[in-house]
Amino acid sequence: MVNVLRLTDVSYVRDRRPILDGVTWSVEDSERWVILGPNGAGKTTLMKLATANDYATRGTVEVLDERLGKVDIFELRNRIGFVSSASARRIPANELVRDVVLTAAYSVEGRWNEHYDSIDVRQAERILAEWDLGAYADHTFGTLSDGERKRALIARAVMTDPELLLLDEPSANLDLGARERLLLMLSGFAASPSSPAMIMVTHHVEEIPPGFTHVLMLRDGKIQAAGPIADTLTAESLEATFDMPFELSSTDGRYSAVARPKP
Ligand SMILES: Nc1ncnc2c1ncn2[C@@H]1O[C@H](COP(=O)(O)OP(=O)(O)OP(=O)(O)O)[C@@H](O)[C@H]1O
What we know:
The chain is of the alpha/beta class. It has helices at 43-50, 73-77, 97-102, 118-130, 146-158, 176-191, 229-232, 235-242, and strands at residues 3-14, 17-28, 32-36, 58-63, 66-67, 80-83, 164-168, 197-202, 214-219, 222-228, 246-251, 254-259. It binds adenosine-5'-triphosphate.
């Protein structure tokens, strides 16, 4: 079994401030994690370490059985899929959606004169259909709605068959329908045994796709709680993480939290 991610007593300090503080956390390949926490908790910083885009100040970070600092990070990054709000900015607006996905196989953003193997073309077609983008394959990326863009970026990220897929707030800024469509697709993708280990950052329990297995709750750079969602996501852990009392409910694997009224 591949050790997908292992952080051991990791701290990340900037301007003498611990942005991550003593984080110990591991992810196995069958697990699908949600990282939940308020603004400024350190979630994106954690993503940067997990995608080998930055280094810890203290402690060790191992990604896909490789220890950061002792591995060619460019090779390692090819094994990781990552979608963040910055991903869309790197895609040319006039790029066809088909090529947004296809060019991932060649690690380029924007088609030039490359020749693509038919096996890659077929894989791109399959993934476009899987993420409900078949009808948009010949549209340009710049004309897509935010929800369609998110799906196109995730489709691009899975084109290379990554061993770890990280999604930083994939449903931020989406309308209700687009959010629900995306969550259904993420849920379906998470359920497939052939899918990679997944880590998704969100601010909202409502955005946890059913089928995600674990939650890590972060506040001020420290882990408040981590483990299987069913045991770990509670009114108490939410209060510890967001510093206010909540009522938490769940139906069919979907969660909802509202502030607990004052007695
Ligand atoms: N390189 C850096 N230098 C100084 N401060 C930093 C640096 N990187 C992050 N921070 C600070 O660390 C804190 C955590 O940032 P981070 O982006 O990881 O939080 P987050 O949980 O993703 O927040 P949000 O939910 O608002 O996106 C913030 O206060 C941020 O300003």
